[in-house]
Design goal:
A hairpin with a 4-residue loop joins strand 1 and strand 2. The chain has one domain. It has a 3-stranded antiparallel sheet with strand order 2-1-3. The longest helix is centred in the N-terminal third of the chain and has 21 residues. The radius of gyration is 12 Å and the shape is globular. The protein is built from 2 helices and 3 strands, in the order αββαβ. It is of the alpha+beta class.
Length: about 80
Amino acid sequence: MSVTHQAKAVYESDLRVRLEADHFGEFVAIEPLSRDFYVAKTFIEAALAAKHASPDRTSFVIRIGHEAAVHLGVA
């Protein structure tokens, strides 16, 4: 299973309910092997926190309460 699928599974099973009430619209970087996660106001802050904590592991960033972390194009 890919890092993306693993991280999304962690988010759905453990983090969605915990984070959406207080952090809606913020970002969470999830390192799925350890299940460690890092919440921040911006995508880059969450990604850098995860990279700093686990430089040898790959994390995946999710925007809390949204289907996509970022939106591209015109609405």
